[in-house]
Design brief:
Helix content of chain B: over 70%
Order of helices and strands of chain B: HHHHHHHHHHHHHHHHHHHHHHH
Radius of gyration of chain A: 19 Å
CATH topology of chain B: Sodium/glucose cotransporter
Number of domains of chain A: 1
Distance between the termini of chain A: 24 Å
Largest sheet of chain A: 2 strands, antiparallel
CATH class of chain B: Mainly Alpha
Number of domains of chain B: 1
Strand order of the largest sheet of chain A: 1-2
Strand content of chain A: under 5%
Number of helices of chain B: 23
Number of helices of chain A: 2
Strand content of chain B: under 5%
Structural class of chain B: mainly alpha
Order of helices and strands of chain A: HEEH
Shape of chain A: elongated
CATH superfamily of chain B: Sodium/glucose cotransporter
Radius of gyration of chain B: 22 Å
Number of strands of chain B: 0
Oligomer: heterodimer
Chain lengths: 87, 492
Amino acid sequence: MKKFLTDAEKFSLVRREAIFTGLALVGLIIFWLIAGFGTSSLDVKIFHLPLWAFLGSIGVWIFAILISFILSKKLFKNIDLGGEKNE
Amino acid sequence: MSEQGSLSALLPLIFFMAVMVGISIFVRHKQAGKNFVGSYFIGNRELGGFVLAMTTVATYSSVSSFVGGPGMAYQVGFGWIYMAVVQVTAIFLVLGIFGKRVALLARKFNAVTVVDIIRERFKSDFLAAISAFVIVLFFCGTMTAQFVGGAKLFSAVTGYSYETGLILFGLVVVIYTSIGGFRAVALTDTCCALIMMAGIVLLLKYVLDAGGGYENIMLTIEKNNPEMLEPFSFGNMPWTIYFTQWLLVGICTIALPQSVVRGISYKDTHGLHDAMLIGTVVVGFMNIGINFTGILAHGVLPGSPADYGGVDNIIPTTIVTVMPKELVGLAIIGPLAASISTISGLLIVASSAIVKDVYLHYKEKNSQPVETSKLRILSMMTTAVIGGTVFIIALTPPSLIWLINMFAFGGLETAFFWTLLLGLFWKGANKFGAQLSMVGGTIIYCATQAAGFKILNLHQITIGITCSLILFLIGSYFGKKSDEETLNKFFG
């Protein structure tokens, strides 16, 4: 766990992580658009589903899981949240 | 009220609700001796990653996700899933953007509610009071929709009356939430989320079996309903619905107080990170699973939604049609779990808005200490009274209840989205901007809803969220800047 001396450092890190999350959202929206609308004219089927329906549902879900994994396990840092528990 | 149901349809639900009450009593016992406000309203900040994920998903996923949604998927087709899947953003967005921010601030100010943080950030009792009012008002609308939706489903599937369902699950959820507080809500939510997933798998299995298998059902859809395989569903799914849903059930959900408050409740950042991943897996599974099941119901219900009494009756009719009688009682628990987990999550936040944000703040401001025993009784009574009031409203359900549900969702987002996002991440945000945004935005949203006014046929959330942003920026430009002490506390 990374130790931060000041609140400012913690807040800066939290702000950066929020921006990462926002960028991840933009990435997901772009993927969603391409996976669904972008492939809807293709006459391709996977498991009896049109390609757009497969990529626009299962594909988006898997992409979101991948994004969550990268955010939470690679980009986000563990920090001490401070404070006392309400014992 | 006529009672024609069989006991086998009732027993699993009775058992499930008894377990929920048991968990609540156990939690109450375990929390004895700890700081009451902290443990009752926020579970003493002890949630681990799995429970945090499950309670966030369960509170977010309502009965309409399990009944109305898949009914629409049955009617519209895969375009509905494509639209509903935007909800996979809901968990990683709220926890990724607000999770650590509110956790740090809550520990710094010893805050237990979202309103505590808003009050501290903008130094405004007026804004805090408005926030509490908006929360209670819109939550009551959402909870009523959950009660009504759940009880109607119960009645349609089991054969027992609407009132019996309301008492069996509605009254019990009020009781166990009142007894156990937030920690009980989180644990029972976890049970509910697991049951929801099991219910989806169970129903999907029986739908596939009854419809002659996946391949057979898909070929039938391809032949009889080709519009279901097209993203705009031959005009049934206009782009405006996709756009609106991205706002209403995707991006703007990050500001729902019932979701943000979960950022105060977890133990450490390991748990938060785990919850982002687990929550995204679960919310996607639920959304795709139940809506896919709705589409595959074409294999067993070959008519149109009107033949079965409308889209809201598709899932109840499917359950009754495909499930063995002895399993119907089990199948109903999944959708009802979605209903009760949303009710409990909202109920405890609404209660904290009244007890913590209004009453306790008033007492502290006037240096009037409140004894723990009195606070305990008052908190439980408040939770029970709010729940009881909504229960009574649900006994004579208002019409257009689903519209009330979506109206409340949009109202909360309009009120809190910019106040929380800009308030917590922008130094330039100030009291006047937040007040103007919350009050003005919410009034404009409600007025456009009441008048039925739309722009480009988009849901009024687009007007509400745009106006609240403009008002926030205008107010922040003309209003007095936040004082240095506050800015130092919030931004270091």
